[in-house]
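Re: the 98-residue chain
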Amino acid sequence: MRQAPLNERQEGCLDIIESTLNDIVSPFLHKLSLEFLNLTPSEIKVASLVKFGKTTKEIAHVLNLSGKTIEFYRKSIRKKIGIANKNINLHTFLTSFK
């Protein structure tokens, strides 16, 4: 599918499919939701996409939300996982979370 010519939205959907399949194989989402029980399903989706290196703009486009909404989710995730007001990159934290 990656070799086929795709528009930006199709690329985004393919990225979600790929990350979802990777999450099925990987215990990341399960561990994240067990460790941080207060994360909402939307925050877990955003966290998963952040973990796979997607920007706020890319996540907003794929989830059909505004960039401000994604920024709100990112801020909420940082607060709930205990890295708000710390000099820790969310992507780095999520990729190292095991």
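The two ends are 30 Å apart (CA to CA).
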